[in-house]
Structure formats: C-alpha cells, structure tokens
Write a structure and sequence with these properties.
Elements (H helix, E strand, L loop, with lengths): L7 H12 L12 H9 L15 H18 L7 H14 L6 H18 L1 H11 L3 H15 L7 H13 L5 H15 L1
Helix pairs in contact: 1-4, 2-3, 3-5, 3-6, 3-7, 3-8, 5-6, 6-8, 7-8, 7-9
C-alpha cells in the first residue's frame, strides 16, 4: 500500500536544509549536494567553469550523493510515484536549477537499473569507493538522512542502509547518529 504524499511544507523545509551546509561543516558555502550538483551539468569546455575548468570528481560525487539517498529511500523495496516525486522535488529544489528534471529522471532510471542488476549491498560498496574524504562521507549521510525524512521518519531498514554506508565510508556508528541528530535539529528550526 502506498504511503500518503508528504506535505509541501515538509518537502520545502527538507529542500532548504539540503541547500545548507551541515552544522558540522562551518564555513562551507552550501551542501555537498548543491555544490556538486552545480558541476554535474557543466561541461569541460563550458566558459562558466573557467579558469578552474570542469571538475569531473564533483560530478561523480553528485551521483554518489544522489545514489546514497536513493538507496536509503528505496530501502524497503518500494519507491512508488509519490516517493519518487518527493525525492525529485527536494533534490531539484536543493540544486537550485543547476540540475534539470530530465537529468535527474535519467539518473534515477540508471540507479534503478544498477540496483536491480547489482543489488543494494554492491551499490553501497560502489558509493563507498566514490566518497573518499570523511567530511564528504558525513555530509552524504546527512543528505541521505534528510531525504529519508521525507517519509516522516527514518525507518529501521533505512537506518540499516545508513549504517552500511557509514561502514563503507570507514566512519564509526556515531556518524549515523550525528547525521540523524543534525537532521532532526535542522527540521525543528
């Protein structure tokens, strides 16, 4: 049975938090999702990226952030139309127009195919190989927890996926608790 759609107010609040840097990242200009999303659509000859040039690692990081959130959102094996719409809304809003609806839909279709082909555990390992720095890993956990929160709470199976991601990121169990605490605090603001 499909869950009811989350309120627009909750979705907007989560999208706002997804744009902001984590409380444990003082001085950051924005969240890892928003910053990497800006690079996701850039091309290597894009004049706007000069003189620094295109950063392919940021684009790969964006895909890893979205995949980790997708894996958590899909933890119960269900990713119905309401969940997909909510997921797309918060990611697109957080990216502030840098990523198009069509690009995100294509990425989600690829993630769905990869998850069906490889299984969740292999996809978690692949995300773990992509996210190398501990500060990035903590932020990826926070983003995934925020998106999991769209369904009015983080379920036991969603928590299990977050825990598996933390292990792949070589973070201790407290990292998931910190991410969840940061999410709850941010949503009370």
């Amino acid at each position: 049975m499909a869950e009811s759609a989350p309120s627009k107010g909750l979705l907007d609040k989560i999208a706002t938090q997804l744009r902001r840097p984590a409380s444990f990242s003082p001085g950051a200009e924005g969240s890892i999702l928003a910053m990497a999303g800006a690079q996701y659509t850039a091309t290597s000859d894009d004049d706007l990226t000069q003189p620094t040039g295109f950063d392919p690692q940021a684009a790969v990081l964006f895909e890893a952030v979205v995949e980790s959130a997708y894996l958590v959102a899909n933890a119960d094996g269900q990713f119905d139309d309401a969940e997909r719409a909510a997921f797309q809304h918060v990611v697109l809003s957080a990216c502030g127009g840098a990523v198009s609806d069509a690009q995100l839909k294509a990425l989600l279709a690829d993630l769905q195919d990869l998850t069906a082909e490889d299984g969740v555990d292999k996809r978690i390992r692949m995300v773990g190989k992509t996210v190398a720095r501990p500060e990035q890993a903590r932020e990826v956990l926070r983003v995934a927890a925020l998106i999991a929160r769209v369904s009015e709470g983080v379920s036991a199976v969603e928590r299990e996926v977050l825990d598996k991601l933390a292990v792949e990121f070589k973070l201790d169990a407290a990292a998931v608790d910190l991410a969840l605490s940061d999410v709850e605090q941010a949503l009370r603001e």
